[in-house]
Amino acid sequence: MTDARTVRSAGTREAIMAAAERLYAEHGLVAVSNRQISEAAGQGNVAAVGYHFGTRADLVRAIMGKHSGAIEEIRQRMVEETRGSEEVRAWVACLVRPATEHLATLGVPSWYARFAVQVMTDPVLRAIVTDEALTREPLRETLHGLGGCLDALPAEVRAERGDMARQLITHTCAERERALAEGTSTRQPSWDDTAGALTDAITGLLLAPVTRRSPAKEVRT
Question: Which UniProt keywords apply (predicted)?
Answer without folding.
Answer: DNA-binding, Transcription, Transcription regulation
